Every structure is written in structure tokens, then in C-alpha cells.
From TrEMBL:
Function, as annotated: Pyrophosphatase that catalyzes the hydrolysis of nucleoside triphosphates to their monophosphate derivatives, with a high preference for the non-canonical purine nucleotides XTP (xanthosine triphosphate), dITP (deoxyinosine triphosphate) and ITP. Seems to function as a house-cleaning enzyme that removes non-canonical purine nucleotides from the nucleotide pool, thus preventing their incorporation into DNA/RNA and avoiding chromosomal lesions.
Organism: Shimia thalassica
Entry-linked SUPFAM superfamilies: ITPase-like
Protein name as it appears in the record: dITP/XTP pyrophosphatase
Active site, per annotation: D75 (proton acceptor)
């Protein structure tokens, strides 16, 4: 098997431990080890774009130009039909507090907004993941994945991260947070996007 990038280590331009663990597990069968932006002491760039791909490009290119290595970023979030696609690219912002991120608060906000609209059930939503592989010469490649499902309240489960405890993927009756992390990878937005990345990067 050959791969487009040299060596067996891939720089993943994220500071999110949950994403990194999922990617490490997804790429391990291909002999790829991942190293996160935090371990490389890279700063967290400001995400100033209003699209997933725009922000994924910012993160990937920042890491590639700082290190001279190809870098894979992940910009992701949840889109809720009854909220016209919110929080979308602002998914992480909904968790922001003076003392850092609080995802119980973020999930409560999402549920409160649905309640305020008296939104019908099932409350359809999609987890979306955009991966950008940026090369030190400035070009990049984009890979996307979507996981459709619906939101439940109260939240359920202790595994996963972010909004996982309120999201039930289509075809299941458990939330992402009630599922084994590796089971989630088989049907998640990130799992589907990584599968496309693998298709594009390995012969
Ligand atoms: O930017 P990086 O450093 O990669 O890490 P981040 O956590 O800031 O990531 P994003 O900017 O892409 O924001 C994505 C948000 O969507 C949430 N999210 C993404 N994927 C998720 C998943 O698989 N399960 C639950 N929540 C997820 C995540 O918790 C963040 O709040
Ligand atoms: Mg971010």
C-alpha cells in the first residue's frame, strides 16, 4: 500500500481530544499514527469563516505552513432542521462560557430553542464533518461526511463528546454517547469523511 504523504505519522490539525481519538482509531488499520496540533505546540487559529470548509481550510493551512508537513483538519458541527440549520458552523460557540466550553449548556440551548418553537418530533438533525488535507505548497483536498438522525431530551449516555448525548443516528435507538466509540465511527459523519480521505490517499 502506498500513501500520498511520507512517513507513517499524520498531523491532524485539531485541538479536540475526542476528534483525535476517533481519527486515530479510524486510521490505525491503514498503518497511520496521528499526532494532534496540541502535541506539536501549534496555536489554535481563529475560525473566522462562515462555512465548515472555510474554517477547515484555515486550520489545515495554518498547521501545514507552520510545520512544512501535510495537515488534516476537521471542521464539524450539528445542523438542526427546525432551527434552519443552526447551530451549524457555530456549534462550538453555543458551548462557549467565561470559563471555557460547556456542552451541557450547548445542548440545553439547542433543546430550549426547539421547545420555544414547539418543534415537531422527530427533531431531525445532521452531524456534518468537513476534512481538509492541506499541503505545504498551498493546495488542498476536501472530504465530507454527514450522519443523519434526530435529537432527544433528556440527554442519554456518557461516552463520546460534544453533542453526542442528544443525537440518535438513523436506524438506531441509542444516542452516539450510549454507543461504543468505535461503533459510532462506523456510521458517523467523521467516519464517512475519513473513509473518503482514505480512498483519496491510499492505493
Ligand atoms: O477546531 P478544533 O480544534 O478541531 O476543535 P473544535 O472542538 O473547536 O471543533 P470545531 O471548531 O469543528 O467545532 C465543532 C463542534 O461540533 C461538535 N462536534 C463535532 N463532531 C462531533 C461529534 O462527533 N460528536 C459530538 N459533537 C461533535 C464539537 O463538540 C464542537 O463543539
Ligand atoms: Mg474549533
Amino acid at each position: 500500500m502506498t500513501r500520498k504523504f511520507e512517513g507513517d505519522t499524520l498531523l491532524v490539525a485539531t485541538h479536540n481530544k475526542g476528534k483525535l481519538e476517533e481519527m486515530a482509531h479510524l486510521l490505525e488499520p491503514f498503518g497511520v499514527k496521528v499526532v494532534g496540533a496540541g502535541e506539536m505546540n501549534l496555536p489554535e487559529p481563529e475560525e473566522t469563516e462562515d462555512t465548515f470548509v472555510g474554517n477547515a481550510r484555515i486550520k489545515a493551512h495554518a498547521a501545514a505552513s507552520a510545520t512544512g508537513l501535510p495537515a488534516l483538519s476537521d471542521d464539524s458541527g450539528i445542523t438542526i432542521d427546525a432551527l434552519d440549520g443552526a447551530p451549524g458552523v457555530y456549534t462550538a460557540d453555543w458551548a462557549e462560557t467565561e470559563n471555557g466550553r460547556d456542552f451541557m449548556l450547548a445542548m440545553t440551548r439547542a433543546n430550549d430553542a426547539l421547545e420555544a418553537k414547539n418543534a415537531a418530533h422527530p427533531r431531525l438533525a445532521q452531524f456534518r464533518c468537513t476534512l481538509v488535507l492541506a499541503w505545504p505548497d498551498g493546495h488542498d483536498e476536501v472530504f465530507k461526511g454527514v450522519a443523519p438522525g434526530h435529537l432527544v431530551w433528556p440527554i442519554r449516555g456518557k461516552d463520546g463528546f460534544g453533542y453526542d448525548p442528544m443525537f440518535i443516528p438513523d436506524g438506531y435507538d441509542v444516542t452516539f454517547a450510549e454507543m461504543d466509540r468505535w461503533e459510532k465511527n462506523k456510521i458517523s459523519h467523521r467516519g464517512f469523511a475519513v473513509a473518503k480521505f482514505v480512498e483519496g490517499c491510499f492505493d
